[in-house]
Every structure is written in C-alpha cells, then in structure tokens.
Amino acid sequence: MNIATKTVNVVHETAALLEKLGVAKELYTGGDMASFSPVTGEQIASLKTVSAAEAAAKIEKADAAFRAWRLVPAPKRGELIRLLGEELRAHKADLGRLVSIEAGKIPSEGLGEVQEMIDICDFAVGLSRQLYGLTIATERPGHRMMETWHPLGVIGVISAFNFPVAVWSWNAALALVCGNAVVWKPSEKTPLTALASQAIFERALARFGDAPEGLAQVLIGDRAIGEVLVDHPKVPLVSATGSTRMGRDVGPRLAKRFARAILELGGNNGGIVCPSADLDMALRAIAFGAMGTAGQRCTTLRRLFVHESVYDKLVPRLKKAYQSVSVGNPLESTALVGPLVDKPAFDNMQKALAEAKAHGGSVTGGDRVDLGHADSYYVKPALVEMPKQAGPVLEETFAPILYVMKYSDFDAAVAEHNAVAAGLSSSIFTLDLQEAERFLSPDGSDCGIANVNIGTSGAEIGGAFGGEKETGGGRESGSDSWKAYMRRATNTINYSKALPLAQGVSFDI
Ligand code: UN1
C-alpha cells in the first residue's frame, strides 16, 4: 500500500468544522447522545436529543409553517432553494469533510455527496417554474378539465448513515419547492452532518427573508423519535431510507393512517458480464461499484454473474485489484476504501463470509486492517467465488463483499439475477445490442435502475431513484418524483349555460 499520510486530530477538527459551519455549540456538547467517527472510533460529540413531546411540537410548528408556505408562489419558493444551492457551494469543502469524518467516506466521495445536494437544488429550482398539470379533453360541451398540483403538508424524512446529507436534500429540495415543510430524523450514527446541513439551510433562509419559521427542522433522537414522525397525523408523507426491516415497520404504520410512503430500502444489486464485454471497462466499474464507499451504498454491487468464456480473464484481474486496493484513514491518506461504520457492520461482514464458506465459497480478502484504533473497523474488501447463488448471496450485507458466479446461459443468468428479494440497481456489461436491450426489456432486469456498461452505483440526480420489491417501490430525486410530494386535484369547469351530465345520465328535476 503506497499512500500519502498526514496526521489529523478528528475531535478537534470536528469541533472546528461545526463552528465554521455555524452550528450552535449547545446542540452538540454536553448532551445525552454520543456520536462517534468511524475513522478512529473516537467520540466526537454529545448531542442534545428531543423528547417525544418536543418532536411533536416541532411537527406542529412545521405544519403551521406549511400553511403559510403553500401560498407562496412556487418560483419564489424556488428562490429559497437557489440560495440553499449557493450556500452549499460556499460550504462544500467543510460539509464534505464533515461527511468524511462522520460517515468515513473518502474525500472525493464526501465532496461528491455535497455535489449531489447542489445538483438537486439546481434541479428543484428549475422545477419550481414547472410543476405542470395536464389539460384533459372533456366529453361535455362548454367545459374544461384540468389537473392542479397542490402542496401536501409536512414531509417526514428519515435518512441513513451512508448518505447522511444527500438523501435529505433530495427530499427537502423537492418538498420545499412543492410548497411543503420538512421535518428530518437523521441516522443516530450521523447527526452532526444533519445539524450542519440545517445550519447551512438557515443561512439560505436568512438571506431569503420572509419564510415562515419552522419550515425545515431536524429531530435528533433515537428510533422512538422516528416513530413520532411516522405516526403523527399532520405528516401526510414520510420518505424513509434504511433497511428492509425498518421499512417493514414504517410502511404498515403509514398505511394504517393512510399516509404516503416513499421507501428506499435494501439493495442486493447484481451485474452480468457477457462474452463481448469490454473487460477493462467492466473491471473499473465493478471495482468502484463493489469496493467504493467500503460497500456501504444501497447501490453497491454485491452479486456478479460472469460468462464462462471470460471468467478466467476477468476474475483473476479482479482478485488482483482486491488484493492491491488501498484501505486506510480517509482523512489522512489517499486510500480508496475507508472504514466500516461500526463494529456490528464488521461482525455482520464476518458472519456473511463464514456462511459463504459454508456454502462452498472461496474468499479473497475480508480481513480486518489494523490502523491502531481499537474502535474503528477497516477491512480488506472481499471477493467470494461462489459455486451458486445461495446462503448469504441472497441477502444484503452492508459491507464490501462481492459474490462472483459463473454462468453459461444468458436467460438463466437474468433469472438468477432477479431471484433475490431486493430490486434496486443492476448492470449488464456487453457490446451485444440484443443482450443489452433484453436486459432493459420487460423480462430483463426487475430493478428500478438498470444500466448498460456502467456500474450499479453512482446514479445522477436527474433520474428517478429507487427500486422494486423489498427495496420498497419509492422514487426520489429526478424525473417526475416530485409528484409524490404533492396532491393532485382534478378540476372540471363548466363555462356553458347548461348542465350536461357525464355518461349521458339525465336527472331533470
Ligand atoms: C444510497 O446509498 O442510499 O447512486 C444512495 C448512488 C448515489 C446514491 C446512493 N447517488 O450510489
């Protein structure tokens, strides 16, 4: 491993960044919730949590803010998000660094996450002059039929540690231009980046001027606080990112009170490498997709099906890449792979590897890398050659494990690819047009994201993001995802002097 290093004091740097970003000190010192950096395992803050009653009061306040904000013209609401984008640009380096400290991302990925926030702001500003409804042909003379999109209310956002700020921004930027208020419950593993994002938002708010108070708020707390958000009658939509287990709890709770859900849950993303694939390109895409972010993206590549004719050309090269990839402290080095988030993540990885071996898997990598911190968990990414798709391959383990399997028949490979519970992202590597189009066709990949000759992870914000089956079915970010944050009214206007009834019904009194 040949990487440059320098020494960083994580505790001091966190405090300095929070101060620079304008987070009030009393929010993260002397509180009841400890927060840690996965980079060194050190405690970096103790945050004040909210009680259930305080959380409910914040939701009520957000509801009051919504009632005023919904009357502000959408392009003016867009101006707030334009200012948020400006503030994020100005604070990109500091917020990106804080993401690296709190989530353990390498610098380019920490900065990339903030760039994703900026991108969605730009998108939402454009959207604020659109939010189109249709005009629809009516069967009645002298009538006009149209649809109007209205703001919905307080939008709850529950986010995960691995994209601690971008996921909030996908939801918040759209929700706010759509005329809603936002209440955010961030992961307990990444509360500081949430406070920092909120401080940045408040700068934009101050420049904007007359926005109602309480328009966007953060709830620092544990699962019980998330439940307050999920169960509150004044929250008509909750957008929740996390495990399928979390979604199984949140989804029915929302359904019970007829609230909407955007669920962005687990992924067990697969790729197929076909005989004609550009193997150099595939190698790079697989390496980033499977090892990037230490395997902790919901879009991480976890299963790879390689055609038998190219298996011996590709897999030894992949193994070499796994053996030589740099694993290290993302703040002090140019390593490509940073830490796992915590000990449970490491334990789950080791458990999955043991199970894979029991199912006949042959493991390259997977060992802990000791950087001299007892409470940080760095690992060599693991490549596991499997005789077939079985055992842990069928489940998402949130760690850098790539299961590799050989295939001979294209249809069987697509069927295997789809034979898991999750349905987020997928890729095919081929130069054969028929294979590529088949993969994208109705009986091809069953995922919400299906790519050709690029990896499974690293989607742009312009497309709708989300997946099928146990991934939850929600869509966030680009395309027409905004519609989930609004309610549609169908309006029929009679400008005639008669009252013709539809379907030829007569009712003369
Ligand atoms: C996530 O892991 O929850 O496509 C989101 C990607 C990123 C978003 C990932 N743009 O990998």
Automatic annotation (TrEMBL):
Gene3D superfamilies, per database record: Aldehyde Dehydrogenase, Chain A, domain 1, Aldehyde Dehydrogenase, Chain A, domain 2
Residues of the Aldehyde dehydrogenase domain: 32-488
Coiled-coil segments on the chain, per record: none
Keyword Oxidoreductase set for record: yes
Keywords: NAD, Oxidoreductase
Keyword Oxidoreductase appears in the UniProt entry: yes
Name of the featured protein: Aldehyde dehydrogenase family protein
Taxonomic source organism: Rhizobium herbae
